[in-house]
Amino acid sequence: MRRLKILFLLLFLLVDVIEAVGWLSVGLSSANLGKRSAGTFCKELKTLNRRQQRFCRKNVILMDSIRRGAQSSYTECQYQFHKRRWNCTLLDPLTHKVIGDVLLLEGTRESAFVHAISAAGVAYRVTRDCAKGLNDACGCDQTRHEIPETTRETSLHSIVPRESKSEFVSEGCSDNVEYGNMISRDFVDAAEKAHGKQKNSTSAQAEQTIINLHNNRAGRQALKTSLRRECKCHGISGSCEMKTCWDALPSFREIGSIIKDKFDGATEVQVVLGEDRPHLKSKHNQFRRHTHADLVFSSPSPDYCEADPVRGILGTKGRECNATSIGTDGCDLLCCMRGFERRVTVVQEKCNCKFVYCCKVVCEQCTRSIERFYCL
Ligand SMILES: *[C@@H]1O[C@H](CO)[C@@H](O)[C@H](O)[C@H]1NC(C)=O
Ligand SMILES: *[C@@H]1O[C@H](CO)[C@@H](O)[C@H](O)[C@H]1NC(C)=O
Ligand SMILES: *[C@@H]1O[C@H](CO)[C@@H](O)[C@H](O)[C@H]1NC(C)=O
Q1: pLDDT tens per residue across span 144-170
Q2: Which end of the chain has fewer CB atoms surrounding its CB within 10 Å, N or C?
Q3: H-helix or E-strand containing 180?
């Protein structure tokens, strides 16, 4: 049996989302259970392992948030990598079949990113949906106001100066990242943990599991550290005698960029079997030690230049490139110095539009040529 990875699972959910769009648009109000029982619904998610099936039955009302978390992870991955040779195409757009699976089993930097963004995406969506009141299972973070100011994370202090005495501050609806992260831990990490326990899982697989779990956690850590204090004033004509404050997550785009920075600074590690339990050690000792917040990988990435269907590498032939950019989207780098071709398309456009009294708009037809470059 092929080893089940969280990625397949998330992508499977994603395919489900794509298929669900049809009946969503018909006007059904919810994208989750429908008329099915929890048992039937969860069974249909065939790639879930036993632990995840149990999770699904117990937390079936969260499954819709989890799906949409998976979907935003994939969208964000494609956005963050759209200018690079590897552009995070994990599903065939036509068949919705998973491609790139072998590659993601190889423990590369790209695999680290996908794990971190997936774990973060699920935690993010669950957290936001809870704060919006979409899930009966959860709500706002009600513990915030019980926590003495001094024990809060330091990041909160720097943003909001201590309240002056004249102000009355009430606690608003804080994003409950602890809850979202807990769900992500239970559900996303479950896919990995099951493998570690398989009797005949090879040591390479066990090592990859440790690395994947580390990266899942690093992704969730990005949510915790990006919580910001936001306040809203209520008072006579803009005064701030009274205010409501809460801790809010930034946009998921911002989370994606944070994790992309972690990708750029990822550490190459090896798994060391210590006396008590295995741990990760940097392969290049001259660099600083990685922390829980950093992404780690165990094998160097291929160059992604030439197509290799067996490994799920699409290659860059036919990709659009930028002839003037010296970045990763520049034709030299993106096309791996193979060269590129220029294609000019002529488009007809309306132009010089004028308003004629009364009452129509008259335009001229203009032609414009658009120059584009594609890798050979
Ligand atoms: C585990 O080992 C058994 C026998 O040793 C074998 O038949 C089975 O295919 C193995 N399973 C996996 C997942 O490698
Ligand atoms: C990603 O790369 C593949 C393979 O080169 C290409 O077919 C696809 O159009 C690219 N996707 C985007 C969004 O650029
Ligand atoms: C190409 O790259 C240049 C320099 O980075 C940039 O100014 C320009 O907008 C890019 N062109 C396109 C079509 O993206």
Answers
A1: 554 434 334 433 433 444 444 456 788
A2: N
A3: helix 177-197
Whose alpha carbon is nearest atom 10 of ligand 2?
Answer: 87
> 351 and 298, same structural domain?
no
Give the Å distance between the CA of 202 and the centre of ligand 1. Answer: 10
Distance in Å, CA 200 to ligand 1 centroid: 6
Q: How many whole angstroms from 147 Cα to the centroid of ligand 2?
A: 48
Q: Whose CA is nearest to atom 5 of ligand 1?
A: 200
**DSSP type of residue 31:** S
Nearest ligand by distance to the CA of 373: 3
Domain that includes residue 344, residue range: 317-376
Domain end residue (candidates: 315, 332, 350): 315
Both 74 and 51 in one domain: the answer is yes
Residues 255 and 340 occupy one common structural domain: no
Kindly list the distances between the CA atom of residue 354 and the CA atoms of 78, 360, 363, 365, in Å, as whole numbers in the listed order: 41, 8, 6, 12
* Radius of gyration of the chain, Cα coordinates, nearest whole angstrom: 25
Which atom of ligand 2 is nearest the CA belonging to 319?
5
Same structural domain, 263 and 294: yes
- Give CA–CA dist 311/344, Å, rounded: 34
The Å distance, Cα 222 to ligand 2 centre, comes to: 28
Residues 47 and 193 in one domain: yes
Residue 174: CB partners within 8 Å, gap ≥ 6?
131, 140, 141, 144, 246, 247, 248
Same domain, 278 and 300: yes
Q: Where is the domain boundary, 300, 315, 330?
A: 315
Mutate to test the pocket of ligand 2, among 78, 79, 81, 87 (most ligand atoms within 8 A of CB): 87
What's the pLDDT tens digit per position in 44-67? 776 677 888 888 889 888 888 888
Is 160 domain-assigned? Answer: no
